[in-house]
Automatic annotation (TrEMBL):
GO terms for biological process: DNA integration; DNA recombination. One of its GO terms (molecular function) is DNA binding. Signal peptide: none annotated. Residues 103-285 form the Tyr recombinase domain. SUPFAM superfamilies: DNA breaking-rejoining enzymes. Pfam families: Phage_integrase (PF00589). The keyword Repressor does not apply. This is Phage integrase family protein. Keywords: DNA integration, DNA recombination. InterPro entries: DNA_brk_join_enz (IPR011010), Integrase-like_cat_sf (IPR013762), Integrase_catalytic (IPR002104), Tyrosine_recombinase_XerCD (IPR050090).
């Protein structure tokens, strides 16, 4: 099929080419969502040649289109995300020389202190995801380590203590040593790691994970489980803060480990308690004790 010349390529045709290309979304659900938004985009610009997006003024036109959903910040931002995606592809494929719709302003913001993985969220993943994804999610929720530290976690980080075991980890971001209690759930993952394997977390074939693959694996199974798109691997840290409080760490120790202020640590834990009814009383009681202790 001959590639249309840029001057004659209409926006709906550009969208059709993208949706029939290998660059389109892979999963059935993501593709349906992508198709919905791009067909809206194509309908709005139905009589416009694609080359208009090489002009600076096109940014204002795309923002005008997105404003149809200004009543719903998430949808407003989603419209821009999909528009930029197809325009990026058009530049990569040579249909356009450039476009001006990068980093469109967003309306929707998330208070990350209110985004935590609840027990029901974890169960939704664990009931369908492969073992390597379940292990990543578990260790993230039990330790609060960032993806960059998770993928480097080895058996040599395990230390014996008078009453059990802990992890001794030098974190990438702050370069500090973190001592993390090994909870029963974390112990199961560590003890199930093959004896001849140094890395605690690996990909499906037993090889080393990258930060992107660890995060992407959790994201893919989050979507398949129908969970909130706001949930990321990074948000396991709120769940971990609660686990560490239950394991006996003080509020200041948790804040130091997470790189948070005391107030933020308390807010995250309090929110976790509110959205996890089975743990509410226990967590709030421990949090109150921690606050009274000035820790």
């Amino acid at each position: 099929m001959a590639r249309p010349k840029p001057v004659s390529l209409m926006t709906p045709t550009m969208v059709d080419l993208f949706l029939s290309s290998a660059a389109r979304a892979k999963s059935k659900r993501s593709l349906a969502d992508q198709r919905k938004w791009l067909l809206r985009f194509a309908a709005y610009f139905h009589d416009a040649p694609a080359i208009i997006f090489e002009e600076r003024a096109s940014r204002g036109e795309v923002n005008k289109w997105r404003a149809e959903w200004k009543h719903s910040p998430k949808q407003h931002d989603m419209a821009g995300t999909h528009a930029a995606r197809v325009l990026n592809w058009a530049v990569e494929e040579g249909h356009l020389s450039e476009h001006h719709c990068h980093k469109l302003p967003r309306l929707y913001t998330v208070d990350r202190s209110e985004v935590v993985w609840t027990p029901s969220d974890r169960e939704a993943i664990n009931s369908r995801a492969p073992e390597w994804v379940r292990r990543v999610l578990c260790v993230a929720c039990e330790t609060g380590l960032r993806p960059g530290d998770l993928i480097k976690l080895t058996r040599t980080a395990v230390e014996q203590t008078p009453h059990g075991r802990r992890l001794r980890v030098r974190t990438n971001k702050r370069g500090r040593i973190a001592h993390i209690p090994i909870t029963p759930a974390l112990a199961e993952v560590i003890d199930a790691t093959p004896k001849d394997r140094l890395l605690i977390l690996t990909n499906a074939s037993g090889g080393q994970l990258t930060e992107h693959r660890a995060s992407e694996g959790v994201r893919q199974w989050r979507d398949k489980a129908g969970l909130s798109p706001d949930l990321r691997l990074q948000d396991c840290r709120g769940t971990a803060a609660t686990r560490l409080l239950n394991a006996g760490l003080s509020l200041s120790e948790i804040a130091n480990h997470m790189g948070w202020s005391l107030r933020h640590a308390a807010n995250v834990i309090e929110h976790y308690a509110q959205v996890s009814p089975a743990e509410t009383d226990k967590v709030l009681s421990k949090l109150a004790q921690a606050k009274q202790g000035g820790s």
